């Protein structure tokens, strides 16, 4: 028989059909917790009628089991596990398997058993190679290993790694840890070369500790593991415990939670980073991976999406290990229903609307870092923020490109001469813009805060924060706990806001120097605290009903929870929804967007739909825009 191995690593030859194993290749029983493991130990020791002499604890490598037959120290045949009784001859693949020497250090007849896998590095390399050859990427290392071991006649070479964890035909009396040392001395690779190396443990407590150590190392290991294997170390204990039909009774796998899960790709979002990189992010049907609910995962870049042929609606493999950001690895092509849709790539920058530079793998906004400036100026100048008429995207681009504006504070130092020097800026438009900026200077805190574009805060939240604190200085001084007292801000959002404000400190200083956002009003926080103190003095229950901030000043809407719906008419026709909400709050009420049992008044304009119906069902008073305008006449802008 001729060798099938291109470089002759395998000295024997390949046969077709399944090859019987010399000794069955067994599986392992599983336990899923420390308690189950402890029960398993008790059971084993009961069967033995004595304590286990010592244990060996080692990683459960997530690859494919193989048997490597050596004759007189030379690699003769490589087999898969198959059904455990007979396996497939994969000798052709032996050359590509690192850690599986062509010749051992001694001329022994032995069958090494162990796991072949793709390390993370080999996996990445394999997928790059496959991309270059127009092949779809491997979904994950295990399927990549299986595919690579079986493949013949590939035009490229994918390297794999072998780790030995057993042998047939060596000194029967060697304990497991001694056997591993012997295998390493013969030249085979073992997990001893990794941080998760096998450890001999004296007691079940030591075993548990080592399991926890290996589990903690998981994310930093160079390969995937799906558990930790616990083995009775001594040959005598193994012999006496014996072997079941499926698995040995002296070893068990303590399984760790899966790092890969399959879920559905619902959407792809495109986010623009600080430098203008436009990065795709997968929105997933929430899936629990190792105790964490994953709803978003990174997708690398458009080319990668194309290469993987990902589609919206696909079932995808999602990988998450330790603190690593979850990532989408591959679609399950054979699970497609035909309903999947292609992923739309952005034609314009999703942040500033400018052109996209698609020249590199990672797409970018052509404005690079300036994209952020343009987008933040456009947003800040918007109607519900600083409301600077005449400052749209084109103007913002012009100002940023001329180097006059890098952030929104720079708007307030623009001079007439600077503006006149710009193209298409005549006297009138310059004066109008300067006037609009002048008006914007005195916008109330809620508007200025909203203009900052702090993550997690929109118009409503900005109004609440402004009302709660009364001044930008007080907002800036607030820690997460204080911020979390604002209605609707949880602990998590509070932390984000604190971090964002810290990042924005230089901008906030610049704005303060321009006297923008420095107006001070009576904060609700203090009013509420004072009320509570007064209540306490009066001996009443100082804990406020639902903990919501109450309006500072009295007005026609004091104590009212107001929802506005439909289109406004009459004196309210020109007001945006945000301006309506501001009006409600000026008049002493609390504005919200959804009708609930707590709503006390609905302002329903034309084309009011489900909110009106719900208010009617709940018996909530409903006013037309005109009736409402009458009631708050004194507070109209
Ligand atoms: S010992 C006679 N040790 O796990 C005992 N197996 O679920 C048989 N595996 O088919 C296996 N790492 O492919 C053993 N350190 C390790 C292992 C390991 C991974 C795999 C092996 C086996 C499967 C059983």
TrEMBL record:
NAD(+) binds at residues 27-28, 58, 81, 115, 231, 255. PROSITE patterns: BRCT (PS50172), DNA_LIGASE_N1 (PS01055). InterPro entries: BRCT_dom, BRCT_dom_sf, DisA/LigA_HHH, DNA_ligase, DNA_ligase_AS, DNAligase_adenylation, DNAligase_N, Hlx-hairpin-Hlx_DNA-bd_motif. SMART domains: BRCT (SM00292), HhH1 (SM00278), LIGANc (SM00532). It holds the Pfam family BRCT. SUPFAM superfamilies: BRCT domain (SSF52113), DNA ligase/mRNA capping enzyme, catalytic domain (SSF56091), Nucleic acid-binding proteins (SSF50249), RuvA domain 2-like (SSF47781). It is an enzyme of class 6 (ligase). Its cofactor is Mg(2+); Mn(2+). Its EC number is 6.5.1.2. The keyword DNA damage applies. Residues 552-626 form the BRCT domain. It catalyses: NAD(+) + (deoxyribonucleotide)n-3'-hydroxyl + 5'-phospho-(deoxyribonucleotide)m = (deoxyribonucleotide)n+m + AMP + beta-nicotinamide D-nucleotide. Zn(2+) binds at residues 349, 352, 371. Keywords: DNA damage, DNA repair, DNA replication, Ligase, Magnesium, Manganese, Metal-binding, NAD, Zinc. Gene3D superfamilies: 5' to 3' exonuclease, C-terminal subdomain, 6.20.10.30, BRCT domain, DNA ligase/mRNA capping enzyme, Nucleic acid-binding proteins. DNA ligase that catalyzes the formation of phosphodiester linkages between 5'-phosphoryl and 3'-hydroxyl groups in double-stranded DNA using NAD as a coenzyme and as the energy source for the reaction. It is essential for DNA replication and repair of damaged DNA. This is DNA ligase. It comes from Kitasatospora putterlickiae.
